[in-house]
Each structure stands twice: as C-alpha cells, then as structure tokens.
Specification:
The chain is α/β, with parallel strands linked by helices and about 400 residues long. It folds into two domains: about 130 residues, Aspartate Aminotransferase, domain 1 (Alpha-Beta Complex), CATH 3.90.1150.10; about 240 residues, Type I PLP-dependent aspartate aminotransferase-like (Major domain) (Aspartate Aminotransferase, domain 2). Strand 7, helix 7 and strand 8 form a beta-alpha-beta unit. Helix 10 packs across helix 11 and helix 11 packs parallel to helix 14. The longest helix is centred in the last third of the chain and has 26 residues. It starts with a helix and ends with a helix. The mean pLDDT is about 95.
Length: about 400
C-alpha cells in the first residue's frame, strides 16, 4: 500500500490553511507543490554561488555539473538512452515554438501535418503557425465527443506520404484521457512522418518511455511533477544533430546545448534533478529508472481508488465530460454543475479551501469540440499522489452543497 501520509510530510506547502481549514490542492494539472528536497537543492546552488558555463573556476564548474546531472535525470525519467537527448528551456511552450521553427525549415508546399482536438494549445498553435508560414496544410484528428477518447484510426486516416509531423498528447490536460501514443507513433513512422508528444500532463501520472512509444520528440514541464518552472524536451539525437537550431553565433554548435537559448536557470536545473530523485524515492530498484517505474506502480493503486471514489460520489447535478471509466485515464476530471457557472463553482470551492481550476486551461480545441468554450469552459479537478481520501470527501460534500 502507498503511504500517502509519509509522502505528504515532504511538502511544506501542504500545511497551508484557509479560514481555519486545511487547503486541498486539487489543481495538480495546473501545477504541483514541491518537496523540501527540491527547495533545498535550488537554495544550495544559489547559496554556493553559480556562474555561467565554460569558465575555469569552481562556480562555473558547478553550473556544468548541475546541467549534466539534470540531463542524466531527465534521460532516466523519459527512458532515453543518451543524456544529450535532453534539452531544457523556459517552458514546454517555448521549446515547442523553437522546434516548430526548426522543423518547418524542412517542410515544402504540399506537405501536411496532423494535430488533434484533444491537445493543449501549446501542441496545436505552434504547429499551425509554422505550417502556415511554410505553405503546409494542417489536418486535425478529432476525439469521440461522447467518450473523450481519441481512436488511433482518427489519426491514421489523415496520414499520407506527404505528412511530415504528427503532434499528439500523451494525456489530455482537460479530460484526463490517455491515447494510444505508441500506435499513433507507429502509424506516423509508417508514412515517414515525425512525432511530437506533449507529455506535460502524463508525466506525473505514468511511466514515460520514449523507446516503447517510439516518439521522435517528447516534451514535459517539471512543475507538473513537483519541480520548478522549467520545460524540457527529449529529441532523438540524430534529429537534434541534423536539424538547424535557431541560435546566436557563439552558442554551442552540437549536442543538446545548441537548442538551449541563452543562459539556463541552473538553480532550476538542480530542482529538476531533485524532483526526479524525489519521484524515484517512492519506489525501489537497482537504479533510478527502475525506481521511477516502481514508484508509478505503487502510486497507481492509490490514485485509482481516489478516482473510483470521486466518480461514484458525483451527484446527478454534476456532469462529467470525458471518459467515465477507470482505465486509460489520469485522475483529472472536467465537470460542470447544473445551475452554476464553472467560475462560480471554483470560487465557492476556494472559499472552503478546495483549490480547483475553471475555464479552458489552454485546452481550446477540447472545449470547443465539447461546446463548452463559450459557456465558461468547465471545472477541472486533479488528484496527485499526495491527495487524500478525506480531501476527496470534502470535495464531494462541497459539490453536493451546490445542488440547485
């Protein structure tokens, strides 16, 4: 059994109260709190004193070590074979815009790309803009509105020998649904297309394995799994070396560094390593990768029980959008409440110390397809490994009190 109390003891922010009630952070899809080890790792770098890369002195060598260790940790998190396949940046959105510009230079008029209606806009608009600039057509694969699920066939039927890229989410940040990424990557590969996977929402909830999925590129954000606000990208090394990066002249010409614009936040990179090490500490194994895999296995049962409790406890005045089952989903739920706008619901819950999001949360395409965008979107509830059954009980009671 997963010991949620022991895990919570690592997080100073979980002691926060609001109007005398404990705060329940049910907004994990929007960002997570950090354990003490991440705070200390970041503070240590700043306390010791850190300089830029390339200097012949200790503070510069610290920057080199922190960067190297973060690449190694990122490779272990993603199941990558080479730390030089890990690129860091301000956030996932910035990295996607950067790579979209680089890939677009290889496209020609008459080529096509595929995006999906299940994705966060950071994995839609950068590609659409790049395609428009290059005279390339954009096709959109749509999910099943009734179930929230994206059939790989919906992507497959759009693929042609002129398809150059397929951009797909590993898990919907709005509906929680997990597509069959490996099948979609395989279909893209069969027609010679590259794949770009947005794993921002999936990474906190499941084992990312770029070898098994066959993704050519995959991006995530550390602040979604208890780290600092840093984005990072996996790219096949041959592709990272082959493509031309938009960079200033003195920047590195090879390796992951050629994709990293300007000076990185070295204290944040130390926090990335610490966050991945924290995740690994929840499992056992001979190396960090094995411990990460085991950690997800241990946490999965806890999150499944919370999901079942939440779905079973919803009143008939609450509508769940997306999959109603327990399988192939993360513990993230988009709901609307009869008689109240999503903003009113989120505001009412906030007064009780229950923190949830409302609106579209950048999931423009899903909200549009569901007909919710012009109605204020939906309330988004998200559980993580530190969420407790008592917090879910409080949430259900609060939603029941909103019955019209």
């Amino acid at each position: 059994m997963f010991d949620v109390s022991a895990a919570r003891a690592h997080f100073p922010a979980l002691t926060r109260t609001h109007r005398g009630a404990p705060v329940a952070y049910l907004d994990g899809p929007g960002g997570t709190q950090v354990p003490r080890s991440v705070i200390e790792a970041m503070a240590e770098v700043l306390t010791l004193g850190v300089s830029n890369l390339g200097g012949p002195f200790d503070s510069s060598q610290l920057a080199e070590r922190v960067t190297r260790e973060a690449r190694m940790a990122g490779a272990d998190l993603f199941g990558a074979g080479d730390p030089e396949e890990i690129v860091f940046g301000q956030n996932m959105t910035s990295l996607t815009f950067s790579l979209s510009r680089a890939l677009a230079r290889t496209w020609r008029p008459g080529d096509r790309i595929v995006v999906t209606s299940l994705d966060h806009d950071a994995n839609v608009t950068p590609w659409r803009l790049a395609a428009a600039d290059s005279g390339v057509a954009t096709d959109i694969a749509r999910f099943d509105t009734a179930t929230g699920r994206l059939d790989p066939a919906a992507v497959g039927e759009l693929l042609t020998d002129r398809t150059r890229l397929v951009a797909i989410t590993h898990a919907s940040n709005a509906l929680g649904v997990i597509p069959d990424v490996a099948a979609i990557c395989a279909a893209a590969r069969d027609v010679g297309a590259l794949t770009y996977v947005d794993a921002v929402h999936y990474t906190p909830h499941g084992v990312v394995d770029v070898q098994k999925t066959g993704a050519d590129f995959l991006a995530a954000s550390a602040y979604k799994f208890h780290g600092p606000h840093v984005g990072f990208l996996y790219g096949r090394r041959d592709l990272l070396e082959e493509l031309t990066a938009f960079r200033v002249r003195p920047a590195p010409r090879e390796g992951a560094g050629k994709w990293e614009t300007g000076t990185q936040s070295f204290e944040s990179l130390a926090g990335v390593t610490a966050a991945i090490d924290y995740l690994a500490s929840l499992g056992d194994g001979d190396d960090r990768r094995q411990r990460i895999v085991e950690a997800h296995r241990r946490v999965a049962g806890h999150l499944r029980s919370l999901t079942e409790m939440f779905l079973d406890g919803l009143g008939d005045h609450v509508t769940l959008h997306g999959p109603s089952g327990l399988d192939e989903r993360t513990p993230t739920f988009a709901v609307t409440v009869a008689g109240s706008s999503p903003q009113e619901v989120a505001g009412s819950l906030a007064k009780a110390g229950l923190l949830v999001w409302s609106g579209h949360y950048y999931a423009i395409e899903p909200m549009t397809q569901l007909g919710l965008l012009d109605r204020g979107g939906a309330v988004r509830v998200g559980f993580i490994h530190t969420t407790t059954r008592s917090e879910v009980e409080r949430l259900l009671e609060a939603l029941e009190s909103l019955r019209p």
